Amino acid sequence: MSSMQSQPSQADNNAPHIGTLPSGALGTIADVEGVTVGHCTLAEGALQTGVTVIRPHADDPFVDKVPAAVSVINGFGKSVGLVQIDELGTLETPIALTNTFGVAAVAQAQIRAAINANPGIGREWPTVNPLVFECNDGYLNDIQALAIGEQHFNDAYAAAGTKVASGSVGAGRGMSCFDLKGGIGTASRVVSVAGREYVVGALALANFGRLPMLVVDGHPVGRILAERAAKAKADADATKPEQGSIIMIVATDAPLDARQLKRLSLRAAAGLARTGSVYGHGSGDIALAFSTAYTVPHLAQYIALPPLVADQCMDPLFRACADSVEQAILDALWSAQSVTGRDGHRRLSLRESVPDLAHLLKQSP
């Protein structure tokens, strides 16, 4: 069953608000003007997976590229397209998220879509750089079934809009986070920089962490839950390796170049660390940041840049990045629905696991 049904967004799930910066009107990455998100979800029996697509603007991203940069915090991952972004500092396809074994199919779908829109690609023009990020959803999803195909990318692309669903949806359908149900999370923050207001938005594909490590707005919730659960030692053993991955996409309308976006993307690690992650050996932790403030025309000989934010004025953007990434991870946990998948494996949502979560947050030190 392929579905594009929505789930709650961060604005609806009552997760604690991180920090003091205000959210945008939607409380999602779509608060950055022009950015849209679409999901295609596969949810039937052992197939619990999907594709999520982020469009940086409504036009053709190959013709009108946007500045971007990537930070690899821990490189246990199989994403495609990062090398060229690191070299050239631009996006030229939508950003796609899926499971590890779906990367090739989604990359091919991106290539076909780009060729259909621009028949000169690979002939008179250079080839296109597909950009696909991944996490391993093999605990809940039969990843060996290779269920993801080109149509799933196309469906997610077609569904892209400003109403961003989060939780057990799209690429997040089969993901786990802190031994609970993880998935897609999103958030935004509004900041003032040198007298002008800008938005920083984040979208996370959260698939990492062990329960005892979970920290919620500074509260050691995971440790308390692990102690309370009184499960088998293996379930609450904090020494068991942290495995999984997280992909963090950061968008802003602040005028930044690729070098500055690299600096911004690195601050996603601060938000990730606050939730309890130590970027374990087996975790692929990758952050990409892009700006919608201007585009880079494919055929340009010279590029006219707007006045860029000075480096010494970037601290509010760094803070907004860290806060929005942390908020997006909490959004994934708060919004997720419990899922049963491959071989009867089940991940309970945070809210189903802890009905008294609000009380616990008030009581924890």
Automatic annotation (TrEMBL):
Matching Pfam families, A to Z?
A: Peptidase_S58 (PF03576)
GO MF terms held by the record = aminopeptidase activity
Q: Which SUPFAM superfamilies match?
A: DmpA/ArgJ-like (SSF56266)
The record's section on InterPro entries has: ArgJ-like_dom_sf, Peptidase_S58_DmpA
* Family label: Belongs to the peptidase S58 family.
Question: PANTHER family given for it?
Answer: BLR5678 PROTEIN (PTHR36512:SF3), D-AMINOPEPTIDASE (PTHR36512)
Q: What protein am I looking at?
A: Peptidase S58 DmpA
- What organism does the UniProt record list as the source? Paraburkholderia graminis (strain ATCC 700544 / DSM 17151 / LMG 18924 / NCIMB 13744 / C4D1M)
Give the classification, highest ranks. Answer: Bacteria, Pseudomonadati, Pseudomonadota, Betaproteobacteria, Burkholderiales
